[in-house]
Amino acid sequence: MSKKNGRKKGANKKRAGAEVVSTGTAGGAQSLEELWAVPVDTEDDDALRDAVRRILADVLDEAPEPDEDGDLPIWLGDVITYASVDAEDAVVELRTFLVERIAGRTRAAEVLGDLQSEWPDFKFVLHKDRVTAEQRVPASPLVPMHLIRAVGAIVPLVEEARVLASRLGGEACVFDGEGTGTDRAVGGNLLADAGCGCGNCACG
């Protein structure tokens, strides 16, 4: 399947790691959380993309490499999310490919209304026969913990990919390569019990 249809063949699989620390642990862990709470100023797309890569490297098995469009592929379990940066609009966009080959658009549109209520952190978009879940993380400046929280919110969503596909009348956008059920389970502890860490912001 091409990236145009939701995934890019040959992309290295990334899995969310379980190394994200919880609030109130040892001194070293607290220092890391304090680091995540420090805003990052970025001047252009390249600088913003580099900042996103560094942040993701802390919570994924390895830092994602940008594709030919400059988007960063994030594998959570066997489902792909692309992170796109726009320094001019000061935003990082996360687009998770959930369902494809939807047979009935009218019925799918009705179900999307329910999903929007069930998953308020996401904007569900129906494009032709495909549904994506999208998030926008403010980046003026970029607070690392805000991005980490957004990625963490994707984990329970992708675990329901097949269920959502059934409800929408389509097929789950799940990588059908060498991944296993264990791969899909990794990342369940991403941000487990971790607060925002940014102090006085209203994101929580």
Essential attributes:
elongated, 204 residues, 6 helices, six-stranded antiparallel sheet, alpha+beta
Overall pLDDT confidence: 78
Strand content: 15-25%
Return the string of H and E elements.
HHEEEHEEHHEH
Query: Which parts are unreliable, with pLDDT below 50 for 5 consecutive residues or more?
Result: 6-29, 178-204
Return Rg in Å. 17 Å
For the sheet with most strands, the description reads: 6 strands, antiparallel
How much helix, percentage-wise, in residues? 25-40%
How many DSSP helices?
A: 6
Question: What separation lies between the terminal Cα atoms?
Answer: 37 Å
Shape: elongated
Q: What structural class results from the helix and strand content?
A: alpha+beta
Count the beta strands: 6
Ordered list of secondary-structure elements with their pairings:
Layout: H1 27-36, H2 45-57, E1 72-76, E2 79-86, E3 91-100, H3 105-118, E4 123-127, E5 130-138, H4 144-159, H5 161-168, E6 171-172, H6 181-185
Antiparallel strand pairs: 1-2, 2-3, 3-5, 3-6, 4-5
